[in-house]
Design goal:
Helix content: 40-55%
Structural class: alpha+beta
Number of strands: 14
Strand order of the largest sheet: 2-1-3-4
Order of helices and strands: EEHEEEEHHEEHHEEEHHEEHHEH
Length: 295
């Protein structure tokens, strides 16, 4: 372990890589605590430093001498593991309020969407993909967004009622375009990951209709949403590791019930949002091709 390079999360930022001797110095100084998320190549996912055998207990002893030429964590390595998320509650709160204000005023919407996406993506940690970032341009969103507004105004001016149904289809098209665009603009260490989303619009349209129909059953939407997440992950192309989602409908259901109840009290919203997103990312894993077939 002493020859490995480590990353750790601090105040929503991913720091590293550091040699283990440096990490132990950070532990000794208190910069890295037992509840700090850390990761090194070969780990299944981000873990708290206190959960890793020998890491915290050995911090106060003699420093470990790193081996020369130890392997750093390289973007695109073949290690797998779950995604994770870390951000401060107050940081999330003020950014979310700015985002909502931008949407309310309509015109800033494309810019606050990209600004918010930039921040949220940078707080996601992916094994073997350091310093995740988002490179999408607000002008792309602006063209879609304002184009849809112009279309809505034109339909309203015609006075033809049935044309209003067209706007529902336009919204679905925009959501699908956003998903394709979002995946294509993910980067690591400032370099595009070269990912793409291969799911067709009509498949996405079908999932949307199925979600609407499932609402009749009151709880069926949770299973549909979990299945749709698996479909989305299967259609992310351009990575040597398969992206899989392992969450179930039942897990979605009870978590969303807890989230809805807690959100009714307003104040807990940031905490339950982080709890929900962390769980969802923890169910999203990178696995070696063929691993699932051999399981």
């Amino acid at each position: 372990m002493s020859s490995r390079s480590w990353f750790y999360a601090s105040e929503g930022q991913q720091l590293g890589p550091y040699a283990e001797v440096q990490l132990r110095e950070f532990i000794a100084r208190g910069s890295v605590r037992a509840d700090t998320l850390v990761w090194t190549e070969g780990m299944a996912g981000w873990q708290k430093a206190g959960e890793i055998p020998g890491l915290m207990s050995g911090a106060s002893g003699p420093p470990v001498i790193p081996q020369a030429g130890g392997p750093p964590v390289i973007a695109g390595s073949h290690g797998g593991g779950s995604l994770s998320l870390d951000f401060g509650i107050w940081e999330f709160t003020w950014r979310s309020l700015v985002f909502l204000a931008g949407v309310i005023f309509v015109i800033p919407t494309p810019w606050v969407i990209v600004w918010y996406a930039n921040w949220l993506v940078s707080r996601v940690y992916v094994p073997g993909r350091p310093n995740l970032s988002f490179t999408g341009s607000a002008l792309t969103v602006a063209a879609w967004f304002f184009g849809a507004i112009v279309l809505a105004v034109c339909i309203a001016l015609t006075g033809v009622d049935w044309l209003n149904n067209l706007m529902g289809l336009v919204q679905i098209v925009l959501y699908w375009l956003f998903l394709v665009w979002f995946v294509a603009n993910l980067a690591s260490n400032g370099q595009p990951l070269g990912l793409s989303f291969s799911g067709s619009f009509w498949a996405y349209f079908g999932w949307t209709l199925l979600t609407v129909v499932s609402l009749i059953t009151i709880i069926g939407w949770a299973w549909v949403f979990a299945a749709q997440m698996r479909w989305v992950c299967r259609n992310i192309q351009g990575t040597r590791r398969q992206v899989v989602f392992k969450g179930t409908g039942l897990e979605y259901l009870w978590r969303m019930i807890v989230t809805a109840i807690a959100s009714a009290f307003i104040i807990p919203i940031p905490w339950v949002f982080r709890w929900m997103v962390r769980w969802q990312l923890s169910q999203t894993e990178l696995v070696e091709p063929g691993t699932l077939a051999n399981a």
